[in-house]
Amino acid sequence: MGAKDSKPSFIPYEDAVKRVSDSELRRIREAFKRCAGANGTALSLEAFVHEVLCDGVPYEVAEWLYQACGGTKRGIAFKELLCGIVVLTKGNIEEKIKFLWTLYVNNQGDNGTYIYKRDFARNLHMEYTSLPLNGPQRNAEILLSLFGPAEKVTFDQFRSWLLIHKDATVLSKWLLSEVNVAQDLETPTFYQSLAGVTHLEER
């Protein structure tokens, strides 16, 4: 997915700060400064993968998450990182749906107005290849249920569909389902790593 320079806004920074304790905020801020390198103002994709996620996360998925959190070629600023982490770990369903929307439209040139069937099909294939679930791949069924005969969907259509089909994709199942997805995965460390936000910590 190609990076955009616009910053997604799932929640304002002020709200994100209120959802973490003072000690969590201090720990994350100090770790960010340490990991952000010489300039200390932006975390690179490589640092995000290694320090925030874990090295076991497939690179393509890590890049999606990085971009959806606000990461660009120049890096990700602390405020965007904190907002992204808070949405992933403590966000409500609406915030997580907006996050998934951003994740799936980030590589398209129309400012996130639509998700296109061909791009979503490619994303589904990559998800199921990189993050396999036990059970058959249902790409054709998923595409039909979301798009029908159309070639694109709006945010409202995507949102309505996702509220009914929370487990349609690997990432939506992880973010939206209330069951413990990690038990069904061959690679549970991906899901566990973000759930605790434990990799970005003081050493």
Describe this structure in words.
The chain folds into 2 domains: 13-91 and 192-196; 93-187, EF-hand (Recoverin, domain 1). It is built from 11 helices and 2 strands. The protein has a two-stranded antiparallel ribbon. Helices cover 55% and strands 2% of the residues. It has helices at 13-18, 22-35, 45-52, 59-68, 78-90, 93-105, 117-130, 139-147, 155-164, 170-176, 189-196, and strands at residues 115-116, 152-153. With 203 residues, the chain is mostly helical. The chain is globular and about 50 Å long.
Outline of this structure?
With about 200 residues, this protein is an all-alpha fold. It has helices at about 15-20, 20-35, 45-50, 60-70, 80-90, 95-105, 115-130, 140-145, 155-165, 170-175, 190-195; strands at about 115, 150-155. It has a two-stranded antiparallel sheet with strand order 1-2.
